[in-house]
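=== RUN LOG ===
request id: a7f3
mode: sequence -> structure
chains: 1
length: 121
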Amino acid sequence: MFEIAGKRRNRKKYGRKKYLFSTKNPNYVGIVALIAGIVSLGLFAALTVYSFLCKGQATLFIGAVGFFSIFLSISGIYMGFQSFNTIDSTYTISKISTLFNFFILILWITIFISGTYGLWW
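=== RESULT ===
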């Protein structure tokens, strides 16, 4: 009699979902990596608009800020990979920040290569 009640209790009913509430917190290193990616994207947008307004004749300082933004993107990728090593935390933000920084790095590399070889799309 107890076995039948036990089987009935563990059986999933139709239309009801089982939820698991977790006490895991978001990873702080992943959040810092995401902030680095957002800053790098903001610098990309600002420098692109400034370079367009200067008709491609921007100063050397603008190029230095661009290289700093590339460094931010690379460090964001590194921090994103390092955030996977922590225990008892969620990895959603780590995955998003790593992919986001990788996308921004590819974007910066294509802009610098096209500027070096004088390519226009």
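=== NOTES ===
The longest strand covers residues 25-26.
The chain has four helices and two strands.
=== END ===
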